[in-house]
Amino acid sequence: SSLHLPAPQDVRVYSYNFRSSLRWSPVKVDGGPVLYTVHFKTGAFNQWDEMNCTHISRTECRFPQLLNEPRWTVTLRVRAELGPAVSDWVESEPFVAERNTTLGPPRVSSVPEAQSSDSLLISITPPIASRRGDSLLYHVSYWENSTSAMKKEMSTSNTLFKITDLKESTLYCFTVQVEFMTLSDFKILGLPSAPQCYSTTIS
């Protein structure tokens, strides 16, 4: 019918550090700007509710604070609208933030006044705040800044820790990845930080 619009395509949830939004490709038709409306439902209540995205022109709808619950199963749907014409609803895949979010890299720095000839003191700021019952583990890869260097690995749950047994007056590089573990033992491995290099001192 003439009152039927093409439906939005590529409808999916994007989530980074537990901040989530629904995105889709724009619907292009003659006759003016197309608007969009988004609804949501959770696993607990099988009914569609309005989100904060009704008759919007952009092709992204950010989750309201209410929906940023990491353990909820959320399904969203979007349709296109132009005057009285509407498209079919298109649903997203069910989304659970603590399984489907992408964790960014932690911020990593050294504590220079604490450096010694055989160790480096490293400080980490995690990409997310840990919540009750969840835990964060930091996987550290470090290596001597030379062509033949072997990588060494360590893991810690501390945001301030020492890398020990190093050579003196030597440049070491390292990256850190966060592993997020939920109460239900589900794990997400985050993106690694960019390599950073710091030197031990001379004894």
Automatic annotation (TrEMBL):
Residues 7-100, 105-203 form the Fibronectin type-III domain. SUPFAM superfamilies: Fibronectin type III (SSF49265). One of its GO terms (molecular function) is cytokine receptor activity. PROSITE patterns: FN3. GO terms for cellular component: plasma membrane. Pfam families: Interfer-bind, Tissue_fac. SMART domains: FN3. Signal peptide: none annotated. Keywords: Receptor. PANTHER family: INTERFERON GAMMA RECEPTOR 2, INTERFERON/INTERLEUKIN RECEPTOR. This is Interferon gamma receptor 2.
